[in-house]
Amino acid sequence: MSLFIDASYESINKYNEELCGDKVEILRDKDSVIVVLADGLGSGVKANILATLTSKIIGTMLMKGSGIEEAVETIASTLPVCKERGIAYSTFSILQVFNSGEAYLAEFDNPSVLCVKRGKVFEIPTQEREINGKLVKESRFIVNAEDMFIMISDGVIHAGIGGILNLGWQWENVSEYVQRTYNNGLTSKNMTKLLLSVCENLYMQKPGDDTTVVSVKIRKPLRVSVMVGPPVDRADDGRVVEKFMDCEGKKVVCGGTTSQILSRELGKEISTNFNYFNPSIPPTAEIEGIDLTTEGVLTLGRALEYMKKCLSLEGTIQDFLKLNKEDGASRLTRILLNESTNISFYVGRAMNPAHQNPEFPLALSIKLKLVEEMAECLQSVGKQVEIEYY
């Protein structure tokens, strides 16, 4: 079975620096995902340029089929030399995971990648070889669903040095923390935000180094189908409902009219839930065979708001924890962000006079805009999203 590679990263800049000296590239094609973390020498503009060149060159060359030797040689001949130190390089970590489960890891002078299997960090056996004067650690192995890989720049293991911690947050400390906090429900974005928040606290909000966390979680594909709005042609109701119900995985229906169409076509009753978990969000309903039934535009709008907050750089792990509430918007956001890898939206384009300005063209309707923005958010974290219009 093909695997889904859930990858995300975030960085915090060295205190008083506008540019980050770490750079991450996440490249996807039909066969694999390549993740490159590069840490440029020093900090600021020079480090940013070195890291950007390194990550771009390595990522592009590997994606085009070049080997690691060729990529490293290209970096060595491309990067400018630092006059003070007489060296010119950016450290790097490369993880390539194929949909088949095969994986390749290469590391040069970065802290070792943490590999989490069944909640425990274990060491990946590596071999060293010299490429263009540089000792690169390499490994080839097989991954399984629920494995997680955490790539860190040295800003992570320097966190707290000379302040809260004498020797910094060392690799062993990071490893122990990951094992203590890990659970199968954690997504790559959750783990990234969790570790970065600890680093910020250890630095007392004044990072002494550029700090980056990249989390890669191997997941089984989790499909979710979302039906929003009635089709333009009523004659299509039955066909759309049949296609929607034939989909694998969880099913979500958004909108009162849409719920009534589904209820009628399936011959199933709608049972309204009168528990107002949040007075500003309409209550949910129940339809047999449907995992979540919500109101339309208001719930979609609030769910999009939650999603943007969680995925923003200002978002914290606390924002993800807030999604454990039982109102429709929280449940919808939780399903889309944490419990899915592949999402299909079935969007009806029939006009609802309550939500439209008749002077606006159909393409600008609130409903369609909400779905399109939601799709963009989900795609930004690597989820595969399809939208079908009726």
TrEMBL record:
Alphabetical list of SUPFAM superfamilies matching this protein: PP2C-like
UniProt protein name: Stage II sporulation protein E
Gene3D superfamilies attached to this UniProt entry: PPM-type phosphatase domain (3.60.40.10)
SMART domains recorded: PP2C_SIG
Transmembrane segments: none
Cleaved signal peptide residues: none
Segments forming domain PPM-type phosphatase: 4-218
InterPro entries: PPM-type-like_dom_sf, PPM-type_phosphatase-like_dom, Ptase_RsbX
Protein species of origin: Anaerobacterium chartisolvens
PANTHER family for this protein: PHOSPHOSERINE PHOSPHATASE RSBX
